[in-house]
Specification:
Largest sheet: 3 strands, antiparallel
Helix content: 25-40%
Number of domains: 2
Oligomer: single chain
Shape: elongated
Length: about 90
């Protein structure tokens, strides 16, 4: 028998927030929602496992600070190495 995970369980399994789970649910390759009752839904556990397996080896864009000065907002790095970031932070 296949196990159905509720949204909270899905978040724990994937290590994401509910907002990120909702965003992932809009992607075409993410497992579809299964209606369990009039007010409950979930996704099959084995389908989430297959999705996770398909994501292995995919590079994730790092979200790291490039410059930290006097409370300015942090910018996201795109294609920047760790050495470039540390050089920019500690260059002053």
């Amino acid at each position: 028998m296949r196990k159905i995970l509720r949204p909270k369980q899905q978040c724990e399994k994937l290590g994401v927030s509910p907002a990120t789970l909702h965003r992932l649910g809009k992607q075409s390759d993410f497992p579809c929602v299964v209606s369990v009752g009039p007010n409950s839904s979930g996704r099959f556990d084995d389908e989430l496992d297959l999705w996770l397996e398909s994501r292995k080896g995919i590079e994730v864009r790092p979200c790291v600070p490039l410059k930290i000065k006097r409370g300015r907002k942090l910018r996201h790095a795109e294609g920047v190495t760790h050495e470039q970031i540390t050089d920019e932070i500690y260059s002053d």
